[in-house]
């Protein structure tokens, strides 16, 4: 096999922008990863400028990791899958961005996750990370479920779980709800109790709430009734999402995101049994998308 | 009775600052109302500058209503009860304000509501408006319940009810939750359906969510199961708050706020039966407080 020198190849950058962090990987046309960078939150619903900054940071770090000069930025063909751009006004705002790449093809984080998970156009994918959602693409028809963002949607997600946990802790501190070990773990984490927790949560974002999710799943595994009730409600929602996705006959279905491994054991068994491992990370799906779009 | 000319009297201004609006009334020492003004939201948790602006606007409008010159502002002794200042950092921020009054005595909206409702120091009061909370003051001991703010607390409030309603409408639109007439009423109000609702709710505050509460109580009264479940959960919380307040033996207990008349029929009957009407509005409680403090 004769390898083309890098300078003559078309280079791609796959961008996976979620509510907590943004990952970007620079790849060759044959999907060899040259370098990866991580930036901050990139869901424009929670801050358009921050999303742009996080994408740029992740791309700059990926260039450094790849040992490529900064000027290479302008030669990259970007595929970007961002949380939040299922909302039309946010799609428009991010599309209008004077981005630093040669070209940028924008879609949802769900779409690139699906393309990556199955390494083909058709499939279904659920995300259980800071946010939650479901997506299937079958016979040229796509189905979006959830992904409505914090606090109005995203049941079963880390942010939703964290908000439920804080609500339960405050009810406990007022003696208006059952005692829960979450009061200990979250008070210790925040170094605050009772009404001082309110103070600490002032201006908190979804990514801040999502930090409590690990305490919830740990407490549920340890038998805490309040935590079990939260995790069961979240897992029941994800099971319902899975059921609707599976009905579209996607062939393959995956669940990804930081919370996924902890949620699966609480999901309906028949749906958990339908899950297949994701084949590639979403950044590969993003490059898959960029290649597809740039060759149209 | 010989009346003193206004110019020689001490004038007070009672300020009741909530999450949706701020009411201010200028009163004589013997509680004759000279004028009233209404400003915007005044819960510093949702914006310190806005709270200050709303208080100033309400005071200016009260002066105009009273037919007093603008310069009278600097002679007023203010009693201000604000939502949110149960959070220590917000109490400090608002206390440090270079306010336009001669003096300002700051306390919580709960405290002035309680003083006004019972026209004496001891009693218990619950608020069910944009936010929710409970307060009792008995034997020099005060008990605060709830009032933790949106979205981590304030169960049973208008904002909480509105958030529950939007979540239910989005579950309905994804066919992941039961059908509800809230989908029709809220979609009509917002002129949006499904994911476009997410767009409309972008950056929504507690006062925006609280606008949906009327649809929830109306739908509950009409027999909608989803709405009934929301209202029952909210009323059960307020009943539990009432039960803890009543245990402090406050003698009198009231519930005030825009949602109160619609919640009472859903509360536990024994607690609903313990409720007495509020005697005076919170602004009178604020002046009661200012007189008490300025004569110490």
UniProtKB/TrEMBL annotation, chains A, B:
It holds the Pfam family BcrAD_BadFG. CDD domains: ASKHA_NBD_GspK-like. Gene3D superfamilies: 3.30.420.40. InterPro entries: ATPase_BadF, ATPase_NBD, Euk-type_GlcNAc_Kinase. Residues 13-262 form the ATPase BadF/BadG/BcrA/BcrD type domain. This is ATPase.
